[in-house]
Design goal:
The protein is of the alpha+beta class. The chain folds into two domains: about 40 residues, Single Sheet (N-terminal domain of TfIIb); about 100 residues, K homology (KH) domain (GMP Synthetase, Chain A, domain 3, 2-Layer Sandwich), CATH 3.30.300.20. About 35% of the residues lie in helices and about 40% in strands. It contains three helices and six strands. The strands form two sheets. Strands 1-2-3 form a three-stranded antiparallel beta sheet, with no helix packed on it. Strands 4-5-6 form a three-stranded mixed beta sheet, covered by helices on one side. A hairpin with a 2-residue loop joins strand 1 and strand 2. It is elongated and about 50 Å long. It comes from Thalassolituus oleivorans MIL-1. InterPro entries: KH_dom-like_a/b, OsmC/Ohr_fam, OsmC/Ohrsf.
Length: about 140
């Protein structure tokens, strides 16, 4: 896996993935940026959320569950001192569909957290406390 990050100006950078997708990263105006893009630490949270969501949906689809929506809400706390690393992250899944079994959703979340989500497991090994929860709702 490869990526490049190119400085544009001030606190703005253009990141490009090895698969050819690009994203603008920028800082807030009070840190020399123009607030035109996502912050790098926000990207880490999005990467974690995407990784675990991909796992959960893959597991649920293999179980042939009728999932209509899956949203991962991620909240993080950072250290007050520099480096301002993540200290705690909580991922809350909101899964909706027809005839969903809570036990199967719980299992999917647990498998992602403990076995499959590389981002989550890597951050935990670096000392970040990561917790998970979920809610299941019925839809028509």
């Amino acid at each position: 896996m490869k990526a490049t990050v190119k400085w544009v100006d001030n606190a703005m950078f253009l990141g490009e993935s090895g698969s050819g997708h690009a994203i603008v990263m920028d800082g807030p105006e009070d840190h020399g940026g123009r607030n035109m893009g996502i912050r790098p630490m926000e990207m880490l949270l999005l990467g974690l959320g995407g990784c675990t969501s991909f796992d959960v949906m893959s597991i649920l689809s293999k179980q042939r569950l009728d999932v209509h929506d899956c949203v991962a809400e991620i909240e993080a706390e950072r250290a007050d001192a520099v480096p301002s690393v993540f200290t705690k992250i909580h991922v809350h899944f909101k899964v909706s569909g027809r005839n969903l079994k809570e036990s199967l959703v719980e299992r999917a979340v647990k498998l992602s957290a403990e076995k499959y989500c590389s981002a989550s497991i890597m951050l935990e090994q670096a000392g970040v406390e990561i917790t998970h929860s979920f809610a299941v709702s019925e839809t028509d």
